[in-house]
Amino acid sequence: MANSAILSRLGSDAQALCKRTWWVFLVGGIASVIFGVLAFINPGIALLVLATFFAAAVLVDGAFNIAGAIQNRDKDGWWVMLLLGIFELVVAGYALANPPVKMMAFILLVAFEAIMLGVFTVMLGYKVRQATRREWLLYATGAMSILFGVLVIANPAIGGLSIILVIASWAIVVGTLKIFFAFKVKNLPERVGERFGSLR
Fold this sequence. Notes:
Layout: H1 2-20, H2 22-41, H3 47-71, H4 78-97, H5 103-127, H6 135-154, H7 160-185, H8 188-197
Helix pairs in contact: 1-8, 2-3, 2-7, 3-4, 4-5, 5-6, 6-7
């Protein structure tokens, strides 16, 4: 009975977190997709401009993650979103204050961001696993980001234009998964409320 009560409480927390922060995933996903589309439209754009676009997308995502986490700091998993938001603000701030002057620096910055984004996203998926079967979207997003970052670091010498298109593809796919997850969990508590209620 005690275990069921604990599971029910954590499930309710995760449900509330998903319900209240769905817009965080939506905004972050849109920002990522916009960055990817801009990079695809003009892959030959100046590195400084591209890096600024990237920093802006990460900044928006980070700011909304922090806002969502602080607003729901009484819910299980909020600190994962907070850490992700802080990390993204640091990355964005560094990119804006020290714009990459070489393609290699930009590539490594994106790869590092992708790996850490993946790690935090998988952690968040683990936190909400009791409340939704849609956590696989977070796992998929996280795994894809980690794999992308590792592959880029393992082969950073890929051609300039090619790597821009690869980065753009990653941003669009990850952003789309975030948007999809946002709409899937928007009304999640109403759909799974009875599931946890039966455990009491």
